[in-house]
Amino acid sequence: PSSSSSREIQFRSPDTPFKSHYRDDIETMMFDLQDKICDTISEIDGGSFHEDQWQRPNDGGGGRSRVLQHGNVIEKGGVNVSVIHGTLPASAVKQMKARGKDIFGEDLPFYVTGVSLVIHPRNPHAPTVHANFRFFEVLCKDPKTGDEKLVWWFGGGTDLTPHYLYDEDARHFHSVLKNACDKFGEQGMYGAYKKWCDEYFWISHRNEARGVGGIFFDDLEDLPSYSQEKNESNEEAKQRQKRCLDFVKGVGDSFLSAYIPILSRRKNMPYNFDQQRWQKLRHGRYVEFNLVHDRGTKFGLATPGSRIESILMSLPLTASWEYCHEPDRGSEEERLLQVLKNPKDWVETDH
Amino acid sequence: PSSSSSREIQFRSPDTPFKSHYRDDIETMMFDLQDKICDTISEIDGGSFHEDQWQRPNDGGGGRSRVLQHGNVIEKGGVNVSVIHGTLPASAVKQMKARGKDIFGEDLPFYVTGVSLVIHPRNPHAPTVHANFRFFEVLCKDPKTGDEKLVWWFGGGTDLTPHYLYDEDARHFHSVLKNACDKFGEQGMYGAYKKWCDEYFWISHRNEARGVGGIFFDDLEDLPSYSQEKNESNEEAKQRQKRCLDFVKGVGDSFLSAYIPILSRRKNMPYNFDQQRWQKLRHGRYVEFNLVHDRGTKFGLATPGSRIESILMSLPLTASWEYCHEPDRGSEEERLLQVLKNPKDWVETDH
């Protein structure tokens, strides 16, 4: 499909005084995934993504944002790749340490690349989907010895937010993700990451989940069945990064198989005004989660020089808040709420 | 006008082991102000407010919430009184200390009452308005001497958020507030509180103000031309509270004169789809401020047992986010944005 988007990446990948083994491959993976996802969504919609390439002020990297708005199938969808480097804000260091990250020193140089997407379809029967895959590098410096150490990790995941609950959709989404995890021969990754997802996308002030979940992981420095050596060789460190990269690539590549069949079977279902109204109320909850709780959004909004439009691209075109709205007893809307309040397992897990 | 609202307050004002001189009068003032404002808005709209009286779980007070939704003039409006007591969350104590509040000890018993309102009219030419008046009491205990000290203060203000800028409206709103401040014979209160308002309602991630401001004050323990004695007598403390109460009452009573003439002259202006679309985009910014920056909202969402529907009553019925929306050059929409990015003085100040 014709599109205003471009394969050319106009900003140069940054020169930093540090660089882990597979950084170039990881960066390429992010842009490739963006291409593949945008091509597929664009084909289904019939409309094309609008592309913006942007740079951070003071040369701290940039990004390639693509948005499809007012489409035939997609009300608003954004797929964004960014490649950012600079010095970590103190608040970010504090937060990373608080969740157990082994980083030390002050004014830490960092590099991060990631792809992030949110697709809000028009049809209330078609669920919103979110995915994000990211890779961090932080150069730490021991204040006593002066030794430098490059710490890196992956994070990511994808989750589904239906406005009307179709059990078969939730089961399909989760089983594709489970297969993607299981391919790496690892025990319990899907189960652990499914649980993490339910915990992360929890709207605590509403006491309900954002959607029916998926998987979420962070601080991934190796696959769980390998144990990191205290003094690993350069070659071991390289292999370790390759294992993680393959896993993240595997999950990333499974995204379209997880989501597209659902979008295809829901996009042309008939719907009425009341169902659209309910969709907008659920969009309101999506906004609440993203602005009040989402770590990535908060990190972005607090980082000087970040591109606000790319961060808030995740918000729906229209959201609504009605005072004390409650769905009718026995309705489909009420059934969704009950599941959101009590997240369930959609496929059997190993543990 | 007939209304489902009630003069009866079903929950009892709390018995606490502490109580400052005019607490009962202050509480009454909050409920009276709610009555007066709801009556006036209801008369203009032709519709009536829906009332909910609610209690906090575990007997920590309650409130009287009133909402007018889908009205003739008002798209969504909420006026809420709450009377809350309990033990201050540690995060709240920390925040109060950070802004210089002289409180000490742990697990501090507190009492707070306040009236809070947001009115979102249907017509894009009619501005949204917000007002809040609140009164805090905290019983501190010196960890060394064991001496108890009752610390109290008032806070409040009101601010205007137009979607289309009418200079005469902004001037009217500010001049009524200035007169209300000036009545107390105090130099510079309006000027200081106007500045505070511009600073408080600042959407830092957008680098723009929420609206054209008004006044905002907090930690008010006396009028500025009085100097508090180190060892004030009981009678002096009482007079000091009376002076503050009179000031807050004066400002509260001026609210209707500040807002209603503006609502009256804008509510029936013709408007088109594009203007309504712009209104919804500005509603999006309102949501961003309230969920990301507003101290009161964040305090509420983080307080266990708080009533979410009363806190988020402030959100508009419908809000919209379009990627990279920019108003046309030379348009009214652009003129508004320019003023929001560079807050201006609407009436002459003394200093």
Strand percent estimate of chain A: 15-25%
Largest interface, Cβ cutoff 8 Å:
A-B, 30 and 29 residues
How many DSSP H or I helices of chain A? Answer: 9
Question: Mean of the pLDDT scores of chain A?
Answer: 92
- As residue ranges, the low-confidence spans of chain A are none
Overall, the morphology of chain A is: globular
Integer-rounded radius of gyration of chain A: 20 Å
What distance lies between the first and last C-alpha atoms of chain A, to the nearest angstrom? 44 Å
State the total count of DSSP E strands of chain A: 10
Description:
Two copies of one chain form a homodimer. Chain A has helices at 23-45, 90-98, 167-182, 189-200, 234-266, 273-293, 295-302, 308-311, 332-341; strands spanning 50-55, 61-69, 74-87, 109-121, 128-141, 148-161, 202-203, 208-209, 213-220, 318-320. With 351 residues, chain A is an alpha+beta fold. Chain A has a seven-stranded antiparallel β-sheet with strand order 1-2-3-4-5-6-9. In chain A, strands 7-8 form a two-stranded antiparallel sheet. The first copy, chain A, is globular. Helices cover 39% and strands 24% of the residues of chain A. Chain A binds chain B through residues 50, 52, 67, 69, 76, 78, 205-206, 280, 284, 287-288, 291-292, 301-302, 308-309, 312-313, 315-324, and chain B through 50, 52, 67, 69, 76, 78, 205-206, 280, 284, 287-288, 291-292, 301, 308-309, 312-313, 315-324. Strand 10 (318-320) of chain A pairs antiparallel with strand 10 of chain B, so a sheet runs across the interface.
